[in-house]
Design a protein that fits this description.
By secondary structure, the chain is of the alpha+beta class. It has helices at 16-28, 44-60, and strands at residues 5-6, 12-13, 69-71, 83-85. Helix 1 (16-28) crosses helix 2 (44-60).
Length: 86
C-alpha cells in the first residue's frame, strides 16, 4: 500500500515515480485503475506530474506519443473548461 509521508514542513509527500510505475504495471497486466482502490489524494499539480511520469516511462520503453486527449465532459469534474492532455 502506498502511503504518503508528511514532510518536516507538514506537507504531504507522494512518491509520484512509484505511483507511475504501479499504474503502468496495472495497465500492462490489463487491470488498470487498481491504484484507485486505495485512498489517493493528489493536487492538480501532482496529477499532471504523475501523467507526465507515466508518459515518460512509456516513451522510455519505446512507445510513441501519437496524440492528445481532450476531455469535453467538464461539468462532472467541476471544471469550467476542457482538460487537454496526452
Amino acid at each position: 500500500m502506498l502511503r504518503p509521508r508528511i514532510a518536516d514542513s507538514g506537507a504531504m509527500v507522494v512518491d509520484l515515480k512509484e505511483l507511475a510505475r504501479r499504474m503502468l504495471a496495472d495497465y500492462d497486466a490489463r487491470t488498470p485503475g487498481q491504484i484507485f482502490a486505495e485512498p489517493l489524494d493528489l493536487t492538480t499539480a501532482q496529477a499532471y506530474a504523475l501523467q507526465a511520469e507515466i508518459a515518460r516511462l512509456r516513451e522510455q520503453r519505446g512507445e510513441k506519443v501519437i496524440g492528445s486527449r481532450v476531455v469535453a465532459a467538464v461539468a462532472p469534474f467541476g471544471r469550467s473548461s476542457a482538460v487537454i492532455g496526452p
